[in-house]
Amino acid sequence: MNFRAKTVQESIVETVHIIRPSDLNDAGRLFGGVLMQWIDEVAALVAKRHSQMNVTTASVDNLQFLHGAFQRDVIVIIGKVTHVGHTSMEVKVETYVENTDGKRALINRAFLTLIGLGPDNRPAILPRLILKSEEDRKEWERAEIRRSLRRKQREEGFHFYGE
After folding, report:
1. Residue ranges of the HotDog ACOT-type domain (predicted)?
2. CATH code (residue 53)
3. DSSP characters for 28-92?
């Protein structure tokens, strides 16, 4: 396996979707389940780029629907690694509606924890994350806080992948 440390920038993923009628719920808005699928796919691609191995989603501990999106809206989804532990990593995924002038409005933010999987399909050691910018370091610090909160939730009876 390739254990070369990587920067946040090396694994960023951006996808673009146009909302079609089949993506809408009964209220004419983007169906949350469709968006959740797109978010999970982006997070998995980010994690695979970073780890260069198969991954699995362990948890989604924050998924905020801030605004709706509608038919023909252009959706831009951007994911990046914010924290890497021994076998798990946190990926931040932000979703925007992009207007025809290129301006983007944030409609969703999610944090997912993914596990790197070795050839035996068991959790595997991940490459380190290189923090180059002040923003990278701030994201790491915030991820440490979320990691601590997840640990506390486990102690209170919530269970995550592999437990």
Report:
1. 9-120
2. 3.10.129.10
3. SBB-HHHHHHHHHHHHHHHHHHHHSSEEEEEEEEEEEE-S--BTT-EEEEEEEEEEE-SSEEEEE
| 15: containing domain | 7-155
- Number of structural domains (the chain) is 1
Which helix (H) or strand (E) segment holds residue 141: the answer is helix 134-155
pLDDT tens-digit readout, 95-141: 999 999 999 999 999 999 999 999 999 999 999 999 999 999 999 99
Coil vs helix vs strand at 147? helix
CA neighbor of 139 nearest in space, from 4, 2, 12 = 12
d(CA 136, CA 31): 32
163 confidence band (pLDDT: 50, 70, 90): very low
